[in-house]
């Protein structure tokens, strides 16, 4: 495939990862906050937590989002370097902070916003490297 | 202490799982046909690669560790902290998959780590 096409499908799948990964994590967070701190000291405690996890709507929605993320991620890894895709998808960390702030009303401190911004800057640096450094199999 | 163990599981098992899945997908080859039938065929082939099963098991372990931590901490702390797996990922990409991690890419990874550190410091 030509370089332009390779970049297009790489960016498209990374965009899907950037949307559905953070959404999945925020929905999982919402579900687990409702369940409360996971006390898994005994087998019956663990089963109790597991049953509450498996009957939580937000958690199932989160799992569906993460499966969408995983499919996009798996496909992109069939041609692009792992060390390219993994940091390039880290813009999702900014998305998580934004979604957590607006959907879960979490307080994100200025230092934490700065940290998220620097993570995104790291993404930009990584994004300017070639997607593949090994020969296709 | 319990949270630290869960964070370690997320980072180590999660990164290990992703590396194994990558190795499996590299064995399958570049995906060029995105029609549903072709995608199903690719995933069926992927499930015949043992690295895929090892990877999925490790990622499952990381998933349950993530659920446990999310029940104790805010998402806006937990998820950025797990970005520490980037350093592990770059090392794994280089040594496990034979990828050439350029100095620029290392710099990006370093910035991500600095960002994660600030996220942790910014904990209220």
Q: Could you describe the 3D structure shown?
A:
The complex is a heterodimer of chains A (137) and B (124). Chain A starts with a helix and ends in a 10-residue tail after the last helix. Chain A is 75% helix and 0% strand. Chain A is mainly α and 137 residues long. Chain A is globular. Chain B is an all-alpha fold and 124 residues long. Chain B contains six helices and no strands. Chain B has helices at 2-28, 36-46, 50-70, 75-81, 85-95, 103-121. The longest helix of chain B has 27 residues, at 2-28. In chain B, 46% of the residues are buried. The model of chain B has no long low-confidence stretch (mean pLDDT 85). Classes of the chains: A mainly alpha (137), B mainly alpha (124). The interface between A and B is large, with 63 and 64 residues.
Quick take:
The complex is a heterodimer of chains A (137) and B (124). Chain A has 137 residues and is mainly alpha-helical.
Keywords for this entry:
heterodimer; A: 137 residues; mainly alpha; 6 helices; globular; B: 124 residues
Secondary structure layout plus pairing:
The complex is a heterodimer of chains A (137) and B (124).
Chain A: H1 3-35, H2 43-54, H3 57-76, H4 82-88, H5 91-103, H6 110-127
Helix pairs in contact in A: 1-3, 1-5, 5-6
Chain B: H1 2-28, H2 36-46, H3 50-70, H4 75-81, H5 85-95, H6 103-121
Work out the helicity level of chain A. over 70%
- Give the proportion of residues in helices of chain B: over 70%
- In round numbers, the mean pLDDT of chain A is 82
Q: Which H/E pattern describes the elements of chain A?
A: HHHHHH
Largest interface: A-B, 63 and 64 residues
User: What's the Cα radius of gyration of chain B?
Assistant: 17 Å
What ranges of chain A have pLDDT less than 50 throughout 5 or more consecutive residues? none
Count of β-strands of chain A = 0
| Content-based structural category of chain A | mainly alpha
Uncertain stretches of chain B: none
Number of domains of chain B: 1
Total helical elements of chain B = 6
Tell me about the biggest sheet of chain B? Answer: none
Span of the ends, CA to CA of chain A: 14 Å
Number of helices of chain A: 6
Gross geometry of chain B: globular
Q: Termini distance of chain B?
A: 19 Å
How large a portion of the residues of chain B is in β-strands, by DSSP E?
A: under 5%
Q: Tell me about the biggest sheet of chain A?
A: none
- The topology string of helices and strands of chain B comes to HHHHHH
Radius of gyration of chain A: 18 Å
């Amino acid at each position: 495939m030509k370089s332009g096409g390779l970049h297009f499908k790489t960016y498209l799948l990374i965009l899907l990862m950037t949307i559905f990964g953070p959404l999945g994590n925020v929905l999982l967070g919402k579900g687990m906050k409702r369940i409360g701190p996971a006390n898994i000291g005994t087998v019956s405690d663990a089963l109790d937590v597991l049953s509450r996890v498996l009957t939580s709507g937000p958690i199932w929605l989160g799992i569906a989002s993460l499966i969408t993320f995983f499919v996009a991620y798996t496909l992109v890894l069939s041609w692009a370097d792992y060390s390219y895709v993994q940091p390039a998808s880290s813009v999702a960390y900014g998305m998580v902070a934004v979604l957590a702030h607006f959907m879960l009303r979490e307080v994100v401190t200025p230092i934490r916003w700065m940290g998220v911004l620097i993570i995104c800057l790291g993404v930009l640096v990584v994004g300017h490297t070639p997607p593949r450094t090994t020969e296709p199999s | 202490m319990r949270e630290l163990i869960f964070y370690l599981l997320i980072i180590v098992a999660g990164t290990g799982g992703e590396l194994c899945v990558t190795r499996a997908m590299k064995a399958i080859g570049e995906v060029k046909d995105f029609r549903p039938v072709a995608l199903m065929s690719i995933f069926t082939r992927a499930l015949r690669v043992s690295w895929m099963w090892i990877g999925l098991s490790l990622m499952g372990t990381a998933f349950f560790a993530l659920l446990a931590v999310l029940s104790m901490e805010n998402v806006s702390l937990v998820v950025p902290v797990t970005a520490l797996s980037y350093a592990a990922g770059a090392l794994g990409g280089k040594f496990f998959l034979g990828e050439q991690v350029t100095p620029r890419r290392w710099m990006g990874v370093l910035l991500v780590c600095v960002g994660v550190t600030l996220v942790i410091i910014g904990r209220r």
